[in-house]
Amino acid sequence: MTNSERVAIITGASQGIGEGLVSAYRKIGYAVVANSRTITESDDPLVLTVPGDIAQPGVGQRIVDVALERFGRVDTVVNNAGIFIAKPFTDYTDEDYDAVTGVNLRGFFEVSRAAVSAMLPNGGGHVVNISTSLVDHANSKVPSVLASLTKGGLDAATKALAIEYAGRGIRANAVALGIIKTPMHDPASYETLGKLHPIGHMGEIDDVVDAVIYLETAPFVTGEILHVDGGQSAGH
Q1: C-beta separation of 9 from 31 below 8 A
Q2: What's the rounded Cα separation, in Å, for the pair 138 and 125?
Q3: From which residue to which does any coiled coil extend (predicted)?
Q4: Which alpha helices (H) appear in the chain, and where do they start and end?
Q5: How far apart are CA 132 and CA 121, in angstroms?
Q6: What structural domains and CATH numbers belong to the chain?
Q7: Tens of pLDDT along 65-120?
């Protein structure tokens, strides 16, 4: 590749939404650095896989360092990796807290900090955070305070980054999701989960991918929390 081709870092990239995002960014001409805890090598020379747990200190910086070493630049980071644990608030354990905040907050922080540092010399870039509509529309059937704590923080950080770096060419946006058909959900639960959305069914991976690619190609959009949730955040 030439140094003018764009480069995207995608976390949680081994399956589901992350895997879909890798394919989509390649289709629009980006080289991709794909991370997850366990990810195998790609046959595509413009997809560099970097195994590692972003909850662990140093891993986020290493992903960006490897991206710069291989491709010479970073233009976009999609913070797709996340942990979701639904249980009553008083049932959460310290281990649950460490797991959820480790990936959802520390992972975002370290990868994004390093990525933004790499974007600044190139005059711009894009940070995309994957969030949840439960932040806006809590549901007693899905008790998930740790999701609201961490993803709500990401929504706020998205707006803060958008404003802090608006004058330096870096945009920040988030995609707040309803329940999406991914490998984490048993197909037997699809009908029940679909009823949690006003539209009456779950979302598809392509719905999320299309939203992220829209934001990638929308230079006048920053600080946006784009809901892809079948109407969930609007009410029920």
Answers
A1: no
A2: 32
A3: none
A4: 16-27, 59-71, 94-101, 108-119, 145-164, 190-194, 205-216
A5: 32
A6: 7-228 (3.40.50.720)
A7: 999 999 999 999 999 999 999 999 999 999 999 999 999 999 999 999 999 999 99
